[in-house]
Amino acid sequence: MAQGSSSGKRKKPNLLVTGTPGTGKTTMSTALAEATHLRHINIGDLVKEKKLHDGWDDELHCFILNEELVCDELEDVMEEGGNIVDYHGCDFFPERWFDSVVVLQTDNTVLYDRLSKRGYNESKLSNNVECEIFQVLLEEAKESYPEDIVVALKSDTIEDISRNVATLTDWVRNWHPTSSQNKK
Hints:
two-stranded antiparallel sheet, about 45% helix, alpha/beta
C-alpha cells in the first residue's frame, strides 16, 4: 500500500474508510482502532452527537450532513494525526488530511441481505446496491484523492474483515511521516 501525503506535523497517519452503507466500515474501523490504538471517528455518530447537520431527510431517513461544520469540527484532530475516519462519502474532506483512503466493497447479494436486516426500505436498499454495482464510492475516492493512496478491499465475510485489519495494521506500523511528502 502506498504512502500518502502528510502535513509534516503528524506522527501517526490518518486513514479514511469509506464505502457503500453495509460494507463493514464501522466494524472494520473499530477493530482496526483496537489493533493500532488510532482514534476511530464515526462521522454519522459525530454528526448526531455534535448536531453537525441541517435537519432530517424524511425520504432517506437520515440527517442532512453539513459538510462545512463536520470539517470545522475535525480540523484540529486531523492535523494531529492518528485517526480512522469512517463515512460513506469522501469527496468533501480535504485531501491533505489522509495518508490512505480505503474503499470497502461487498458482493451485491451480501450487501442486499445486510441492508435488508437493517430494515432499509426498498428505495434506500436499491439505491445503495446500485451505488455498489457502479462502484460509485471507489470512483469518488479516485477523483478526490491521489490514486496511489486509494485502495479497494473486499469486505464480504468476517475473514475478509480480519485480513483487512491485519493488512492495514501492518501499513500503520510501517508508516513514517518522513517518507511522506509535505502537502499544502
